Structures are given as C-alpha cells and as structure tokens.
Amino acid sequence: MDRYRRALQGAVAASAAPYGYTLTIWTSGAVLAHRRGIPSAAGALLFMVGAVLGFAVVGLAAYGGIGPMRPADPAPFSLWQALHFVPVGAAIAAAALVGRIVDSAAAWLLGGLLGTTLYLCGVGLQLVLGRRRRLPEQGGAVDDGA
C-alpha cells in the first residue's frame, strides 16, 4: 500500500499543471460559448491562436528569449497550490468579461489569450507565494524564497 501511495503522489504532482490548464481552457471556452454561441471553425482557431500567443508571451517573459526551454529544478509544492482555484477563476472571470464587452470574433482571440496568460502567471505567483522554508533535517534544502 505504501508503494501505491507514493505512486499516487507522483501521479497527482505530475498532473497538477495539465489539470489546471485543462480546467482553464475548457471553462473559459465554455463561458465564452455560453455568451457568444458555439464558435465557428474560425472562432475556434482564434481561441487557439490567442492561447498560443498567451503562452508565447509568458514564455518569453519567463525565459527572456526564444532559445531552449530548460525547466527550473522542481520544487516541492503543496496540494493546495495544485488546486488552482485563483488562476482558473481569474481565467473564467476574464472570459466572462470579454464575452460581455467584446461583441465580435475578437472575443475568441482575447478569451484564449487572457485565459492562458492569467492561468500561467497566476500559477507562477501561487507557487512563489506558497513556498515554505524547509530545514535540512526535514529532508529538503532551505528555500530562501529567491
């Protein structure tokens, strides 16, 4: 049972980001579709382009260029940080606002762009704010918050 629990911990930790982003894209797209109707192929393409642009903008900010992406050393995070309430909620709120105030196909582009950007930036902020100092005797390096 202990091996299964460790494996389950690994599955939950590895799924945290894809889980949160899936929630973001599905729910923000659903909110826009509720307001604007089912998107045409062009609307869906605009939503995808917006999401890709959001990912690119955040990626450029994070990496400082378009060179190779080297992931940061994985840092332990708490389960509450993987729940993504605030980042996903911000994406949903942005989609609702865009759906309400933008009365054109640009709503799809903005929905994907804002949803992705708010999710990624929100998760980054949540991970920074949730870091705890771990003492070496607790089995981890001391995190100085930098």
Say how many strands there are.
0
Helical proportion, percent range: over 70%
Number of helices: 5
Rough outline:
globular
Q: Could you give the order of the helices and strands?
A: HHHHH
Let me know the largest β-sheet: none
Task: Describe the protein's architecture and organization.
- The radius of gyration is 18 Å and the shape is globular.
- It is mainly α and 146 residues long.
- The protein has helices at 2-36, 41-63, 79-82, 85-101, 106-129.
- Helix 1 packs antiparallel against helix 5.
SSE diagram, text form:
Layout: H1 2-36, H2 41-63, H3 79-82, H4 85-101, H5 106-129
Helix pairs in contact: 1-4, 1-5, 2-5, 4-5
What is shown here, in short?
With 146 residues, this protein is an all-alpha fold. The chain has five helices and no strands. Helix 1 (2-36) packs antiparallel against helix 5 and helix 2 runs parallel beside helix 5.
Summary keywords:
146 residues; mainly alpha
